[in-house]
Amino acid sequence: MNLAVIGTGYVGLVTGVCFSDIGHRVTCVDKDAAKVEKLRAGQSPIYEPGLEELIRKNMNEGRLHVTTDLESAVEEAEIVVLAVGTPQSVNGEANLQYIEQAAREVATAMNGYKIIVVKSTVPVGTNERIAARIGGLTEHPFDVVSVPEFLREGSAIKDTFHPDRIVIGAASREAAEKIKELHQPLTTKMMLTDLRSAEMIKYASNAFLATKISFINEIANLCELVGADVAQVAQGMGYDRRIGDSFLNAGVGYGGSCFPKDTQALIQIAGNVNYDFKLLRSVVEVNKNQRFNVFNQLVRLLNGLHHKTVGVWGLSFKPNTDDVRDAPSLEIVGMLLASGAKVKIYDPVAMERFCEMLNDPSVICCSSASEAASNSDAVCLLTEWDEFRHLDLKHIASLMRQPILVDGRNVYTAEDLNGAGLIYRSVGRPMLSSPVQEEENVSALQA
Ligand SMILES: NC(=O)C1=CN([C@@H]2O[C@H](COP(=O)(O)OP(=O)(O)OC[C@H]3O[C@@H](n4cnc5c(N)ncnc54)[C@H](O)[C@@H]3O)[C@@H](O)[C@H]2O)C=CC1
Ligand SMILES: O=C(O)[C@H]1O[C@H](OP(=O)(O)OP(=O)(O)OC[C@H]2O[C@@H](n3ccc(=O)[nH]c3=O)[C@H](O)[C@@H]2O)[C@H](O)[C@@H](O)[C@@H]1O
C-alpha cells in the first residue's frame, strides 16, 4: 500500500519505517526541515535502538522517503497517518493545534478517496471533530480511523513489530477492514471498535499503567516505615497472574512525554463532563511527591546541600532513549541547584537534550559515571541504564569525597554492595548492607 505519515517524531518515524520494512511504500512528512535533512542523510533525529539501521535499509531499497512536501505525499497516498504531537496545554488539556493544522493541510491536499488514520493520542470526540473539519474543506470522500499507538520509547521497533494488540476505531466497516489488512503481518490480535472507545482505550491504558506505578510507590513509602522490602513485595504480588509482574518497579516516579500529559488530559476529559476522577488525581499527586524521595534522602544524609557536590547518574526519563521530556531528573537537578549544591551530571545519550531543556550553565557535564562521582559528596541514580549495573562500586566509592549513593531506581543488590564501603539508600527497601557494615561505613565517613 501507499502511505503518507505526517510527523516524524517518536511515533511517526517508527511507524513509517516499520511499515516500509514490511513492504509498503511510505513517505514520512515533517515540517521541520532540519529533521528531514538529517533523515535524508540516513541519520535518525532521535535515539531509538535499531531505528537508524532500518531507516537506511528501507531508504536504500526505495520503500522509504522523507519530505517537507505534505501536499505531494498526500496526493500519492491511499492512507494518510497523522502522528503529530498533542502536548499538554497550561490547563492540563491536550493541545490540539498541531493535529488540527495537519488535518487542514491534509484536507486541502486531497485529490481523491483517502483513509486518514489518527495515531496521535487525542481526547474522546476529537476524531469526529477532525472528520467534520476535513469534510468542510474537501469535496473528496474520506474516512477517519483511530488507531492509537501503544509503543514504548526504547523498545519502539520491537513493540511495533510485535504489538500486544492493534485497536482500530472507525465508523466505516470497510475502512476498518482495510486498516486491519495493513496491520495483518504484524499481529492477529486486532480489535475493531467505534471511534470514541478507541480514543478512550488509549487514555485508560496509560492511566492504568501510571496507577500501577503510583500504587507501588505508595507501597514502597509504606515499606520504608514498617521495615519491609518493596522489591520482595512486588515480586510476591507479581506471581498472581491477575496482577502481573510488570510496572511494579518503585522509584522516582514516572516521567516522559506521555504518562504525565495523558493522566492530566484524562482528568480534564472527565472534568469537562463534570466527573471528578479522584483516583487519577491521587495517582498524579503521588507521582509528584515521589520525586522528593531521593532529594530528601540527600538532604538528610548530607545535612543540607549548600556547598555540597552531588553527582547525578542518568537523565533520560527511562533507559534506552534520549528523551528528557518531563523526566524526573529535570525537577530533581533543579531542586539540587536551588538548594545550593554543585551538580555533576552524566547520561550515556541524553546529555545534550537535558542541557538544552534545563538551560542552566552552572551544571557540570561529565563524560562518565566515575567522573560524575569524583570528589562528590554523594551520587544519586535517576535512570537505570545498563552500564550503571556493571560499575565497580568499590572503585566509585574510592573516588568520592563521601561514599554516599542514593539509588532512585533500586538497581543494586546486597551482593553488588558487599565490600564497596558505600552508604547506600534506595526506595522502599531496607538498608541492603548489614547493620555492622553500615555502621563501619558511617564511622569511616565521620573519621
Ligand atoms: N512518544 C511516544 O512514545 C508515544 C507518543 N504517542 C502519541 O503520539 C503523538 C506523537 O508523539 P511523538 O512522536 O512523541 O511527537 P514528537 O513531538 O516527537 O513529534 C511530532 C512531529 O510532528 C511534526 N509536525 C507537527 N505538525 C506537523 C505538520 N503540520 N506537518 C508535518 N509535521 C508536523 C513535528 O515537527 C514533530 O517532528 C502524540 O499524540 C503522543 O501522545 C503515543 C504513543 C507513544
Ligand atoms: O503513550 C505513550 O507515549 C506510551 O507511554 C508509555 O511508554 P513510555 O512512556 O515510552 O515508557 P514506559 O516504559 O511506560 O515508562 C514510563 C515511565 O514510567 C516509569 N516506570 C515504568 C515502569 C515501572 O515499573 N516503574 C516506573 O517508574 C519509567 O521509568 C518512565 O519514567 C506506555 O508504556 C506505552 O504503552 C505508551 O504507548
Automatic annotation (TrEMBL):
EC number(s) from the headed UniProt entry: 1.1.1.22
Keyword Metal-binding belongs to the record: no
Pfam families, sorted: UDPG_MGDP_dh, UDPG_MGDP_dh_C, UDPG_MGDP_dh_N
Sorted UniProt keywords: NAD, Oxidoreductase
Reactions that this protein is recorded to catalyse: UDP-alpha-D-glucose + 2 NAD(+) + H2O = UDP-alpha-D-glucuronate + 2 NADH + 3 H(+)
UDP-glucose/GDP-mannose dehydrogenase C-terminal domain ranges (all copies): 311-414
UniProt protein name: UDP-glucose 6-dehydrogenase
Species for this entry: Xylanibacillus composti
